[in-house]
Specification:
The protein is an alpha/beta fold. It folds into two domains: 258 residues, 3-Layer(aba) Sandwich (Aldehyde Dehydrogenase, Chain A, domain 1); 187 residues, Aldehyde Dehydrogenase, Chain A, domain 2 (3-Layer(aba) Sandwich), CATH 3.40.309. A seven-stranded mixed beta sheet has the order 12-13-14-11-10-16-17, with helices on both faces. Strands 7-6-5-8-9-19 form a six-stranded mixed beta sheet, sandwiched between helices. The protein has a three-stranded antiparallel beta sheet with strand order 3-4-20. Helix 5 links the parallel strand 5 and strand 6.
């Protein structure tokens, strides 16, 4: 049982049992917080922000972040097993996540060293003669970060790391399914010298408590990663003046356009579609292939999918792990069954392996209005569609109210460039799957997929203000 990770003398509101999504065994338990805990945490964070004399210097923040990365580097195996066991992402992919998280902490330091204001070009008009102006960076205020389950360590680093780097007191609410990696990361920050009040972890006892935390007038910046329904609802309830960034999901399209490397596309799309059992906001979901090659491509993809090892996430041989909750397995099964009943051809999978795992599935030509074609499935399902005209594939790819990352496989740079221009997405991967990401890249959901730009350098920018000084030279 962990201690409360907020600065408060109150007893916990309750206890949350954290269980494995694969086999249901209890991993640990954590104390939960109620409305009065929210008041305690916000009071401490806001008081810290308002007391400028207490702000940590840039060298102090750099020292803490460097020490954090150093400690994490000695605990890669433990952090990997913790993330895999609570989140269900296979061991091999969870280890990649941990390495990325450590790099993300270093990236915070690199950007903090380089983050500077700018010189404003005064003196270009008579009214501004004799004046100079410049800006410097200051923290925006208290940050409240609400995170998702699917990358239980790296997403926390993406939200908390920039807050620590920029000097913003931060209160983070991890997903109820995966609070352990978040708690461990904040414990490491504290081991590295970060004062407790600078970063608090609040596991909410109920939805009302979480909403109270987010909508308080003392919140300067709200960072949200999760479902669009919840994110947009919370944004509508933010206090006046609070800024925010929302990261939701998409129904990522991939277009194969002649000429393309068939084998390279197969390997990449299989990884991008079935990585973490499809529980990634930019997972490959819709693949558009020229009609004459669609059947063969879909079958080859199914042959790969059938050979993927589904099992316990802690097992190094596992390639596809469980879905986060049993209800999600049932939902995916229902969506696939509906698509098949509506005319989709089932090439592999299409069944529950257990209460926690769903077989990697490939569907050929599901109806364009089927749920698997229009909504983010967040499961190990890839849909392949044949197209006769490339403009039709683009139109279908662009037809949804969500837009995030997309991909194109094509060896003709002219055609690839045209598709880059025509596709609605914030990022287009050429000859790579839609789920590729490096943490230095901008990461932005468009339309209903999000608001603002993620990625560590961009989040650090969001969590700061540009404060200007104008100096007049007196005669």
């Amino acid at each position: 049982m962990h201690d409360l990770m907020i600065v408060s003398k109150r007893k916990a509101a309750g206890v949350l049992s954290v269980t494995s999504p694969f086999d249901g065994r209890e991993l640990d338990s954590v104390p939960t917080c109620g409305p009065q805990h929210v008041e305690d945490a916000l009071s401490v964070a806001y008081k810290l922000f308002r007391d400028r004399k207490s702000w940590m210097s840039v060298p102090e923040r750099i020292e803490i972040l460097n020490k954090t990365a150093e400690i994490m580097s000695t605990q890669v195996e433990d952090l990997t097993l913790l993330a895999a066991s609570e989140g269900g992402k296979p061991y091999q992919d969870s280890k990649v996540e941990v390495i990325r998280a450590i790099d993300g902490v270093h990236l915070c330091v690199e950007n903090l060293r380089a983050h500077a204001g700018s010189v404003i070009p005064l003196g270009t008009t008579k009214a501004t003669m004799g004046r100079t102006a410049f800006t410097q960076k200051e923290p925006i205020g208290v940050v409240v970060a609400v995170s998702a389950f699917n990358h239980p360590l790296n997403l926390i680093v993406h939200q908390v790391g920039p807050a620590v780097a920029t000097g913003c007191p931060v209160i983070v609410k991890p997903a109820a399914d995966t609070p352990l990696s978040c708690i461990r990361f904040v414990q490491i920050l504290r081991e590295a010298g970060l004062p407790d009040a600078c970063c608090q972890v609040l596991v909410a006892s109920d939805r009302e408590t979480a909403e109270k935390l987010v909508t308080d007038s003392r919140v300067g910046f709200f960072s949200f990663i999760g479902s669009a329904k919840v994110g947009w609802m919370l944004r509508s309830k933010l206090a006046r003046g609070a800024r925010c960034a929302l990261e939701h999901g998409g129904v990522a399209p991939v277009i194969l356009a002649e000429p393309f490397d068939n084998d390279a596309a197969l390997i990449s799309i299989a990884k991008g579609g079935f990585y973490h059992a499809g529980q990634v906001c930019v997972s490959v979901q819709r693949v558009f292939v020229p009609t004459g090659k669609a059947d063969e491509f879909a079958q080859a993809l199914a042959n790969i999918a059938e050979k993927l090892v589904v099992g316990a996430p802690e097992d190094a041989a596992t390639e596809v792990g469980p879905l986060i909750r049993h209800a999600e397995v049932d939902r995916v099964a229902e969506w696939v069954a509906d698509a098949v009943a509506s005319g989709a051809k089932l090439l592999c999978g299409g069944k529950k392996i257990s209460d926690s795992c769903y077989a990697p599935t490939v569907l050929l030509n599901p109806p364009t209005d089927a749920t698997v074609s229009t909504a983010e499935i967040f499961g190990p399902v890839v849909c392949v569609y044949g197209y006769d005209e490339i403009d039709d594939a683009v139109a279908q790819a662009n037809s949804l109210p969500v837009a995030f990352q997309a991909a194109v496989f094509c060896d003709d740079i002219t055609i690839a460039n045209r598709l880059y221009c025509d596709l609605d997405a914030s990022a287009i991967m050429i000859n790579d799957h839609s789920a590729f990401r490096d943490d230095v890249m901008p990461f932005a959901g468009l339309r209903e997929s999000g608001l603002g730009v993620g990625g560590i350098p961009y989040t650090m920018e969001d969590m700061q203000i540009d404060k200007m000084m104008v100096v007049r030279a007196l005669p």
